[in-house]
Amino acid sequence: MNKQLNHIDNQNNPTMVDVSSKSMTQREATAQTLITLPNEVKTVLSDGEIHSKKGPVIQTAIIAGVMAAKKTHELIPFCHPLPLDDCKIKIDLTTANDLIISCKCKVTAKTGVEMEALTGASIAALTVYDMCKALSHDIVISETRLIQKTGGKSDYQKS
User: Fold this and answer.
1) DSSP string over 40-87
2) How many CB atoms lie within 10 A of CB 118?
3) Within-domain flag for 116
4) Which residue out of 18, 130, 138, 155 is catalytically annotated?
5) Distance, CA of 94 to CA of 42 (rounded, Å)
6) Is 124 within a domain?
7) How many domains does the chain have?
8) Phi and psi of 130, rounded to 5°?
9) What is the side-by-side strand order in the sheet with 140-150?
10) pLDDT tens, 120-158?
């Protein structure tokens, strides 16, 4: 299989991928980001929620993640604008009281929704950082990755 970058044209210029000849199909993607919280933040966890002077951290991060997924095409130059059918942000505490943020996006479109899921998970994580940085700057955002995608040319499942 000869793989190549699809955002580069024959003259090596950046370009948007032409999806005009593709069929509309249902597509879904899930991305995940891990946040390692320092003890200063873990000590303010109560019933799975962090309350800061800026408000409820988890709920705010969920809203920010959904908003970001909907605006992905405004942030990443060659992403097509997609009318998301669904976007769900889930934030779970690990046994070590760190956070796992998952973003699952669905769309019926000519192109995939991976970037929307990755953007949603990333911005939700950055929102947690922003709202908790007064407690500590030792918050670590890591392992942002695609977990699965369906629809389009091929499916993907993280092994």
Assistant:
1) HHHTTEETTEEEETTEEHHHHHHHHHHHHHHTHHHHSTTPPP---SEE
2) 24
3) yes
4) 130
5) 11
6) yes
7) 1
8) -60, -45
9) 86-93, 99-109, 25-36, 140-150, 156-157
10) 999 999 999 999 999 999 999 999 999 999 998 889 999
Question: Contact 61/37 with Cβ under 8 angstroms?
Answer: no
Residues 42-87 have pLDDT tens digits of 888 776 677 777 788 999 999 999 999 999 999 999 999 999 999 9
Reported as a single tens digit per residue, the pLDDT across 20-43 is: 888 899 999 999 999 999 999 988
**CATH code: domain of residue 42:** 3.30.70.640
Q: Which domain holds residue 102?
A: 25-157
Asked, for residue 3, whether it belongs to a domain, the answer is no
Task: Assess whether 98 carries a catalytic annotation.
Answer: no
The span from the first CA to the last CA of the chain, in angstroms, equals 21
